Amino acid sequence: MCGIVGAIAQRDVSEILLEGLSRLEYRGYDSAGICTVADGKFHCLKTIEKVQALRTEVAKAGCPGGLGIAHTRWATHGGPSVVNAHPHLTERLAMCHNGIIENYQQLKDKLQAQGYQFKSQTDTEVLLCLIDSLVKTGLDTQEAFRQALLQAEGSYALALIDREHPGDLYGARRHSPLVVGLGIGENFLASDVLALLPVTRRFIYLDDGELVHITRGSVEIFNAQGQRVEKDIAESSLDAESISKGRYRHFMQKEIFEQPQALENTAMGRLSADGIAPDAISGLAQHDLSAVDNIKIVACGTSYHAGLVGKYWLEELTGLATSVEIASEYRYRKAVVKENTLFVTISQSGETADTLACLRLAKEQGYLKTLCICNVHSSSLVRESDLSLLTRAGAEIGVASTKAFVTQLLCLLLLSLYLGEVKGTLSAPRRTQLVESIKKLPALCRDALGQDEAIRQLAQEFAGKHHCLFLGRGIMYPIALEGALKLKEISYIHAEGYAAGELKHGPIALIDKDMPVVVVAPDNALLSKLLSNIEEVRARGGLLYIFSTRSLKLKNDAHSRIFTLPDADELLQPLIFTIPLQLLSYHCAVINGTDVDQPRNLAKAVTVE
Ligand code: AGP
Hints:
The protein is α/β, with parallel strands linked by helices. 2-deoxy-2-amino glucitol-6-phosphate binds near residues 400, 401, 602 and 606.
């Protein structure tokens, strides 16, 4: 989704801004722009191509000045075009925006009546003109900015500059992230710390409703009423290595191979001999979970699939009734909240608009406690939840979620273990057995990664295909859903995940020699049922690609190819069987020549509805 960078320094800032934009490219975008101030004039360049093209234009035309803002845009109001790209400008002000101004049409009507004419179709230009109109009434820029925001409905992260005040940079946020980066004699703004890592490690995270006034030597933060607020400075532990591709061709590939290490990090210090260490979940000291009787999980996309797997674990290990919902559905229905229900959100970014909205709604709905499973410790979701379980996957840059997913799964398993102990549903020997299994998980995932070359060859057979089915049963059904999501989002091959038992209720009509059917078939209690479903496909001439457990010794034949994975505790199979499906979609995308790390139309953090 959109990215913002802003900088104020003694030196020219265009290189800082462009480098920041490059580091935000992973979020997904369709146009980019930059605007600096020098000698009382704006220097603004925009493109509907990549940041590299903007860099070339800046090299040619120049973008001088020690004050500037820059943006990568993911279109919401108005298609991708140079005119709609940010920064937007009036005679005196320039602004970049992430988010949506929902009442932009009413504001636009009012401004048009005052004589404002609009160059773009964006809601951002409307908000900018509103600020401009207030400046024209004699207010200083900061007060005009504050008053305009009081009239704006919706979500925003904003960076604003005034060409008459080259010593001031302004920012504000509501429901969209924005951080201030602290330098020495220079300061910065960005929608993500990754953008500013080359210039600083010290950050202030703005909260909703806050407005910041930044100069080269000072940072002042105000609440919506215009009162000063004091904020903590946080030191980021991210390093350059975490955001470089290293020896890999794509971030997604690197992140798939990082999974064993990521899982080690997730478990590190959180396991005791027969369960969970006391401080494994942040917030437990203040928020006791012994009264929990039910669990509601809410998330989007891949994180939703993690929640679906979590339901199997939670119900099996804790006996607590668990339901899982898509956040964009949950937030708009009248939900019945049962007494003593724990509300769990799952999100890699912690900024997904629908998930965040559900958390805020849940706080009004009488849930017992809120807990989030998240990869970003500074995110809104972590800050606003009672308890949190950080996935510790490290920065995930590829739009397709991989290591974030498997670490979410492990967190859900840890939560199940914890609640199983608290509720007395898990015996000490079973807990010890599970702890031992979790310790073996990184090695099992390394083993699964050993299938990479075989899957790369398999992907050649998928290259010309337009559709694909993924089948699984029980706890492997959500893994089939996730396999299908991964394949469609990065290779653009249409794919559907199905509970294999549903095959004969409709999708079996699709089976023919051109339709690959991928089956996740580990050795578990449902295997015999799944083998019957496999026969149903075989009997209709379908092409089967079966991922199975090594000890089962299934054999290749004219209709089916077998890929084997290590034997493991049944409860851990979802994590292990996810890996070959990630590899399959990765290699299909490479063969299809798609933009693997930034697939078309997708954004890494979906911060708008
Ligand atoms: C994953 O591959 C997707 N890009 C997407 O479904 C993602 O999982 C979803 O947008 C939720 O994001 P979150 O985990 O940051 O909330």
